[in-house]
TrEMBL record:
<protein>
    <submittedName>
        <fullName>LysR family transcriptional regulator</fullName>
    </submittedName>
</protein>
<keyword id="KW-0805">Transcription regulation</keyword>
<dbReference type="GO" id="GO:0006351">
    <property type="term" value="P:DNA-templated transcription"/>
</dbReference>
<keyword id="KW-0238">DNA-binding</keyword>
<keyword id="KW-0804">Transcription</keyword>
<dbReference type="InterPro" id="IPR036388">
    <property type="entry name" value="WH-like_DNA-bd_sf"/>
</dbReference>
<dbReference type="GO" id="GO:0003700">
    <property type="term" value="F:DNA-binding transcription factor activity"/>
</dbReference>
<dbReference type="Pfam" id="PF03466">
    <property type="entry name" value="LysR_substrate"/>
</dbReference>
<dbReference type="Pfam" id="PF00126">
    <property type="entry name" value="HTH_1"/>
</dbReference>
<dbReference type="InterPro" id="IPR058163">
    <property type="entry name" value="LysR-type_TF_proteobact-type"/>
</dbReference>
<feature type="domain" description="HTH lysR-type">
    <location>
        <begin position="1"/>
        <end position="59"/>
    </location>
</feature>
<dbReference type="InterPro" id="IPR036390">
    <property type="entry name" value="WH_DNA-bd_sf"/>
</dbReference>
<comment type="similarity">
    <text>Belongs to the LysR transcriptional regulatory family.</text>
</comment>
<dbReference type="InterPro" id="IPR000847">
    <property type="entry name" value="LysR_HTH_N"/>
</dbReference>
<dbReference type="GO" id="GO:0043565">
    <property type="term" value="F:sequence-specific DNA binding"/>
</dbReference>
<dbReference type="InterPro" id="IPR005119">
    <property type="entry name" value="LysR_subst-bd"/>
</dbReference>
Amino acid sequence: MSDLDDLAAFAVLMDAGSFTQAAQQLGWSKGQLSKRISALEASHSVILLHRTTRRLSLTAAGAMLLPQAQALVRQMEGARQTLAMLKDELAGPVRITVPVSLGETFFEGLLLEFSSRYPDLQVELELNNGYRDLLGDGFDLAIRTEVEDDARLVARPLLAMQELTCASPQYLQCHGEPRVPAELGSHRCLLNSHYSGREEWLYHQQHELLRVQVAGSFASNHYSLLKKAALLGAGIARLPSYMLHAELADGRLQWLLRDYQTRSVPLFLVHPYQGGMPQRVQVLADYLLSWFRRGSQALQTL
């Protein structure tokens, strides 16, 4: 790469006509520029310039090399312009990796709302509960519940996700509605097998921690299946707030024990550290931030 840099410096020098002006354009000192030209000559065993106090003149070898060096500078400038254009262009692929249940929740908005607004963007949505190396695996964005200590990444808070206790009207009509957490012990609860303590549900009221032993005939490590089971009237579930906006609004599920707080998990939008995020990635990041904000506002009105 040093040869390419030195060739470009050679072209800039001859276009500027003096070491002083060329060094200013390159942001180097005159001494640095002179050493680079000398290194270029030494590495190829040629003399490119006749140096005098008044002017620079090319040797025969320098005259042969100059057009190619100038072409190299033009190509480098063209590449910079292309990169700048790509950065600002609302077209091309955007790759994002998110937890499974979360991606299943907002993918409809990506397909309908976001894609109609930005038809030239190709969104690749990977659903994965495991860790993915954004830089190594080529992802532009990720949504995560934890932020690792990695200077290569930037994390922006999305929301504090809370699990809501809910059930269908049909279930409540048959089995009654629990008014305090302790009453959950006599209900059919839908258990999350992802958690080792799935049969103990925790609630907070003011400064008091309540531990409730629950039981049920169905468990799954997949939030979407637990949600479907609740909609079918199979029992009471605890589900993330982000996946309940529509069901609570239209009454298909009812929010129970609202006066008791459940665990809160932060969600972060993560992207590789860059001097400036490409516009095609920025618009998707803005959409996701807006989607979560609208969801939180909708819950506050219920």
